[in-house]
Task: structure prediction
Amino acid sequence: MIGELLVLILFPALLVAAAACDLGSFIIPNRIQLALLAAFLVFAVVSGMPAQMFGAHVLAGFLGLAIGFTLFALGYVGGGDAKLFACVSLWFGLSDLLNYAVVASVFGGFLTLGILGARKIPLPAFLAHQGWVMRLHDEHSGIPYGIALATGALAVLPYAEIFRLGIIN
Result:
């Protein structure tokens, strides 16, 4: 039961919180990443995750961290995005990491094109006083890629190994 709650409610809720924070402030608070890490550890224990599978998830997390921080160092994503990618990679493990990365990249492409296109259009007056809208519309701002990372994770989750593990146990 606890495994189901973690994989069906807490994990998605933390993803939505990360996306909302990134949209509103271009910052994904570290407490969200810490909650994702802690929730995964609890999930691994309560679901009876085998040691070999746990190791594959940890390896995926480190791989996600290496990829994320490489993209951060190159200036493609923010630090919060890099950490979020690593945390979500930990949840998905090696078995679902590639699917997650591809789906999140597709969502990221659409998000980026949509925001860049919207920045070409003048803001309506009623939106011009909203700070988060102004930041999002600013040509010198980045892209809140955490939205794509979270959306990609939510799209892949029903097909992932952790979903089946959380439901079965």
In short: Residues 25 and 132 are 6 Å apart (CA to CA).
